[in-house]
Amino acid sequence: MNNPVSELYNNQRTLFGRGSLQKLLPLLAAEPQPTLLFCGHSFLRSAHYAEMKEALSTHILAYEIVSHEASPADIDGWVARWRGQVKRVVAIGGGSVIDAAKAFSAMMQHPLPVARYLEKVGDTAVEALTLPLIAVPTTAGTGSEVTQNAVVTDQQEIQVKASLRHPLFVPGVAILDPDLLRGTPDTVLASCAIDAFTHLFEAYLSKKGNFFTRQLAISGMQQFIRAWPALNRMDDTGDAAREAMMMASWLGGVSLSSAGLGVIHGIAGELGAIKPFHHGEVCGRLLFPFLQQLAQSEHPEQQQLMQELDSQLFGRSTMNPALALHDWLQQQAIVAFWQGGPHLSEEEKEWVLQRANSKNSLREYGYEEMKQMLVAGWPD
Asked: Which of these, 50, 60, 98, lies nearest to 82 by C-alpha position?
């Protein structure tokens, strides 16, 4: 096996545990400064916000609502509105909210429009400059609270889903409160969770992986396996499951930052440039046919890693661990999110396939293999 040197990125400070959202107000009060809140409508409608609204209002200038994956125009507009007025940012929400806040925090310290700094399309390197950011995820999936990249999406003008990326863009503080997942709709819980698993799984199988990164990924997948069947239960078992999934999501962010992702995200990233599908659902729809292809793989390193994973996750040794994992994931899911759903035209599939890649995968995936995955995820 190859054995590249790994780099670990994570928060300077991580607060984890049920009720840890209560630590936000003391953190803000300890260092008073002009603060902008990024959040979603769901948080503003929540009991958590109602409980802290009055006290929180004394620590923030205002809030910006993020209702979709932020576009370059969104980021540039926020920066123009707040440049010179904000010294700190708080993000409370899912991956789109936190990514938007990360991009905003960085661009507040950069002079050019955000598109100039984006991977894939930009022409200017980012600098090690950003505003302090406190990230509070209300979903367990993206791991954005611990990654060094901020995803920006433009589905109208340049049709790209790309990242701003720098180690300094990892939020300085992450508050991981599993109680924020309580009451989340089943489709959101499952779609976000399968995104976390895909991060962990692709990082585990990455050609950039080594013993260190794979142990991190295994630890996250073990927490995922514990949590997946009980995410929506409103009892002690459900609380423990949501706590485990919050940890799996965070470890997924650490793992992808250290080892990179593979062909699933190589397709999903391009699809996200043209369709407003939930990213986690996209990853899940691609994961299942990928596992079926993996079941037929004769690649020796893939075979060995899958046998080791089968033992680590389930304490067994099956004849075909990829198929066994595929079946377990579908049988134990709280909702069959991969069934039905939106349509993808032949023209859209071809657009995606012409741009997709299998970067970081242990082996190269060609056009036909990627097409099989895409067609299986969105059959005619």
From this structure: 60
C-beta separation of 326 from 340 below 8 A = no
Backbone torsion region of residue 83, taken as left when φ is above 0, otherwise alpha when ψ lies between -120 and 50, otherwise beta: beta
Query: Using one digit for the tens of pLDDT, what is the confidence trace for 166-213?
Result: 999 999 999 999 999 999 999 999 999 999 999 999 999 999 999 999
Share of the chain above pLDDT 70, in %: 99
What is the C-alpha separation between 150 and 213, in angstroms, rounded?
21
* Residue 11 and residue 250 in contact, taking contact as beta carbons nearer than 8 Å: no
Q: What is the DSSP string of 299-317?
A: -HHHHHHHHHHHHHHHS--
For 246, the token pair is: 């919050």
- C-alpha 104/C-alpha 89 separation (Å) is 9
State the amino acid at position 73 in one-letter form: A
Amino acid at the residue 176: L
Classify residue 128 by burial, with Cβ atoms within 10 Å: 0-12, 13-18, 19+.
Answer: exposed
Rounded to whole angstroms, the Cα distance separating 283 from 293 reads 15
Q: How many CB atoms lie within 10 A of CB 308?
A: 15
Element (H, E) at 94: none
What is d(CA 259, CA 4) in angstroms, rounded to the nearest whole number? 9
Beta-strand pair 160-165/149-154:
antiparallel
Q: Give, in order, the Cα–Cα distances in Å from 50 to each of 45, 85, 90, 137.
A: 8, 26, 17, 17
User: Is 142 in contact with 94 (CB distance < 8 Å)?
Assistant: yes
pLDDT, tens digit (0-9, with 9 covering 90-100), for 75-97: 999 999 999 999 999 999 999 99
Which residues share a beta bridge with 173?
Answer: 13, 134
The alpha helices in the chain, defined as continuous H runs, are 24-30, 41-44, 47-57, 72-82, 95-107, 186-204, 211-227, 236-259, 263-271, 279-295, 300-314, 321-332, 346-355, 367-377
Does residue 126 sit in helix, strand or coil? coil
Read off the DSSP letter of residue 144: G
203: closest CA among 254, 247, 161, 248? 254
CA distance 312 to 22: 35
Helix (H) or strand (E) holding 37: strand 35-39
